[in-house]
Amino acid sequence: xxxxxxxxxxxxxxxxxxxxxxxxxxxxxxxxxxxxxxxxxxxxxxxxxxxxxxxxxxxxxxxxxxxxxxxxxxxxxxxxxxxxxxxxxxxxxxxxxxxxxxxxxxxxxxxxxxxxxxxxxxxxxxxxxxxxxxxxxxxxxxxxxxxxxxxxxxxxxxxxxxxxxxxxxxxxxxxxxxxxxxxxxxxxxxxxxxxxxxxxxxxxxxxxxxxxxxxxxxxxxxxxxxxxxxxxxxxxxxxxxxxxxxxxxxx
Length: 251
Description:
CATH architecture: Sandwich
Number of domains: 1
Number of helices: 5
Largest sheet: 7 strands, antiparallel
CATH class: Mainly Beta
CATH superfamily: q2cbj1_9rhob like domain
Number of strands: 12
Distance between the termini: 54 Å
Oligomer: single chain
CATH topology: Jelly Rolls
Mean pLDDT: 89
Strand order of the largest sheet: 1-9-5-12-4-2-3
Low-confidence stretches: none
Structural class: alpha+beta
């Protein structure tokens, strides 16, 4: 069975900064991601194995069983990457009407992944790109490993719908698509009508967005055959501290 996908327009590394500044988003190939991270693409592809070890997301309010994830937090100061003690993921209801306003304690990222040189180079490489757009002393970074599967016949990458995440920049990497249809990416202006829809298919290709300007979502997936899944990595970069529950410090 064949499915139709919309090929995204790709931006080269030389055009990335200006395009992101002008348009608010860019889509880049896996080869460009490896270039920005200063690693071999094969080293990034070798990280995909960690997505086979994700616990189920216990916080889905729609009762679904289709999402698996892990979470980690960092600070980046210049060329220094600092691990942050495991913390809850929190968003206000302004950014996530479905799951906002609660502390979600996801399982931490695997230590072997966290200590991988290619992983560290990726986090730092993205920070260097974004620092060309915004002068920041410290980036507050969150990393999310996601697997969306078709256990119940359908999987929803963004059950909250079209949204912003409440950060300065959001990077969404497509790691793998296995026996699925759907999973179309949609990105459009938060304060306008311009937008784009496409399907990321190349492992380690990337949608990078200015989260203050753009809204995004991914459409549901369905299996092609008995079972399928879609793996992604989401990195968020914020200049003014982490989003934290207002109840922190009062407990």
